[in-house]
């Protein structure tokens, strides 16, 4: 695990910013769910958004992909503002994203191949046979070859998550957003998912943003991170998760990282 | 205050709940409480229940005044109307794209919806419209017989089915069957983040999910309505021929003589309007569904209720318009 982590540090040192979030605040009426969050994700990084339950991790992710409109602040990709983009511009941003949702969110009325192939049909000029081949290949990448005609309902939770990743990768996205990829999975499956994420980063060079509170997973895959606090709803620590574990003095961060590490062991 | 529990054999949550409610919190009362007399398990559970995780939940502020609540409700109705109009606008634009063949949706979805809304509704439409025709004829025959006007049962059933009842039966069946299904399907897709997944792929949810459903229902209602009219008239003929002893030729002739083509157009037009309303309302309720299972139930209920209200209101408006136009 540690060798893999060190293998990536070279890359993280000369990174250019890929995603920039500035002063993001999200509020519903009087209830602030995210307050004044700023972060920068380097190109090719695995960036971890961590924090306890209810700290606004998923809200942050959802506002980064346009599912929630922020009350204040700006999200930009490669220097271009996403928050202030018009509908057609936004569509071209979205085509560069791949998103894995917490519950997989596969379209339940379609087979796995159709799930993966849908966007290919919408945005590429591939023929139906080629789409099927590409979809089949993406499914094979996540270890689901032979499941092309399965319906999402027939799969286990871990398989649905993997199929969700295959779908997120359909258009070879520049950025993969993963919302709690290992939530609800057993330790072995969740470890395999981590390996898969790292392998994808290595081979595709995609930037990956992961929301997670699984300590083992975030320590092994994260190049950079932010820690969101439950009470203030903002970032209280940032940096490499390993580094935070060793050098961050904030008691909340320490409690989170140490406690869960003990539990994981 | 001390506890003496040496003779206590067994205890359960009732004891804990009573202790928690009965024990003074200690801060305000000048009573020293010594819990060491309690069984160890009780002590541990009590102290667990007293620990506060994070900030305690804020209590709701006291209920607002009646005027404020009426105001809040009124402004939320206003927002709902704006929201419905916004949805209607989006669907209209989407139908524009459908007509010009630029809409993003799968043909197979449209075919599946056509089948679900049309062909699969045939059995229940058969049952209901035949029975309504039968009942109309039976009740009518009882009255008309007193005047020796048995033959006019054919007129009664024919006019009622063609002008009003055929469309009404189809509208009500579709509201309960298809509109409810749309709300439940879209609502569940919202809960399972499937709609979010479409959005983040840049696929128009209206084009992809709403359009095939609304179009399918709109296209299928006229056919179902014609079918219901035929079945209703057959139900009437069953009574007319079987009970009143009219000959089939006579009954058919009398039915056709009572009707004009514009009656049929009027009836089918009613059905088209109902189909559109049921489809739009079902999809709107599904798209505006909350994020849990209870919300799906509420969306489905409100889809059926709103659709039925809309059908009745539309029927009234159409009757007024047809009357004014002399149709």
Key terms:
A: alpha/beta, four-stranded antiparallel beta sheet, 10 helices, 10 strands, disordered N terminus, B: 327 residues, mainly alpha, 0% strand
Instruction: Please give the oligomerization state of what you see.
Output: heterodimer
What's the helix count of chain B? 11
Biggest beta sheet attributes of chain A? 6 strands, mixed
The poorly predicted ranges of chain A are 1-13
Q: What string, H for helix and E for strand, traces the elements of chain B in order?
A: HHHHHHHHHHH
What is the spatial order of strands in the main beta sheet of chain A?
Answer: 6-7-8-3-9-10
- Radius of gyration of chain B, CA atoms, in whole angstroms: 31 Å
Largest sheet of chain B: none
Classification by helices and strands of chain A: alpha/beta
Q: What percentage of amino acids of chain B are in beta strands?
A: under 5%
Contiguous helical run count of chain A: 10
Supply the helix-strand structural class of chain B.
Answer: mainly alpha
- Fraction in helix of chain B: over 70%
User: What would the average pLDDT of chain A be, to the nearest integer?
Assistant: 83
Most extensive chain-chain interface = A-B, 26 and 17 residues
Rg of chain A (C-alpha, Å): 18 Å
Q: Helix content range of the residues of chain A, please?
A: 40-55%
**What coarse outline of chain B follows from CA principal-axis ratios?**
elongated
Mean pLDDT of chain B: 90
